[in-house]
Design a protein that fits this description.
Elements lengths: L4 E5 L4 H15 L4 E5 L11 H15 L3 E4 L11 H14 L3 E4 L7 H16 L15 E5 L9 E4 L4 H10 L21 H17 L5 E6 L18
Parallel strand pairs: 1-2, 1-4, 2-3, 4-5
Antiparallel strand pairs: 5-7, 6-7
Length: about 240
């Protein structure tokens, strides 16, 4: 099989928070979308592994993802050795994504930075014929999304038309995220606070404003982006 885009996160809800609108937008346009969580989030303060699996499945369905995978690479100390590379290489060769979207190089949670390096390395090694088993495949591009720590984005995606789908995906994570009008008697966390939930929308509105849209999701690219027609970058076209 072959996916158009595979979004990879350290924990269930990372992808949905950071780029759920983009995934939903692509799915609505007929692109095949997959989501891969590198851990079950077992070290998290709130929720059980079983809960988080069910939430991940519901969130993936809300975004229109056709494939969902959850690895067990160790939450709260993400392992990034050769064995972990092999597991990710196997998934990349099975799903054969054209585009991979993963965590940024640096972020508040150490697992996110570790995941960035693991994803970048595995995407390269997956293209080597003498590394691992299966038919080699190297994604054409790797972009990274924004989670906690800000960075200067390489581009911003207008996700206004898919914002409702993103909210539906976030609503699936009842154990992790603050849900307006609901109370959950568990230990407080930053991610579960009303302020964090408001910040998700605030960031999207900020980056949307920069591109004259209601909501935007920022992404980074290690390499320059190729453009065949510079006029396609002109907001609103020529007048």
């Amino acid at each position: 099989m072959s996916l158009d885009v595979l979004a990879i996160g350290s924990h269930p809800d990372d992808v949905e928070i950071a780029c759920g609108g983009t995934l939903a937008l692509l799915a609505r346009r007929g692109r095949s979308v997959g989501i891969l969580h590198l851990t079950c989030g077992e070290a998290g303060t709130r929720g059980t592994v079983e809960e988080r699996r069910r939430e991940a499945e519901a969130a993936a369905a809300a975004l229109g993802a056709t494939e969902l995978g959850i690895l067990d690479l160790g939450d709260g100390g993400l392992r990034t050795g050769r064995e972990e590379e092999e597991q990710l290489i196997e998934r990349l060769r099975h799903w054969r994504p054209a585009l991979v979207i993963g965590p940024a190089p640096r972020d508040r949670h150490p697992d996110h930075g570790r995941a960035h390096r693991l994803v970048a390395d595995a995407c390269f090694y997956a293209g080597l014929a003498r590394r691992g088993s299966g038919t080699p495949h190297r994604p054409a591009a790797i972009f990274h999304y924004m989670q906690h720590d800000p960075f200067e984005p390489s581009f911003i995606v207008d996700v206004t038309s898919a914002w409702a789908a993103k909210l539906e995906a976030l609503a699936a994570y009842e154990s992790q995220l603050h849900q307006p009008g609901a109370e959950r008697p568990e230990p407080p966390t930053k991610v579960a606070s009303p302020e964090y939930r408001a910040a998700i929308e605030g960031r999207a509105r900020h980056f949307g404003l920069l591109i004259n849209a209601a909501y935007g999701e920022p992404f980074g690219s290690r390499l320059p982006l190729a453009v065949s027609d510079p006029l396609e970058l002109v907001p609103g076209g020529l007048s």
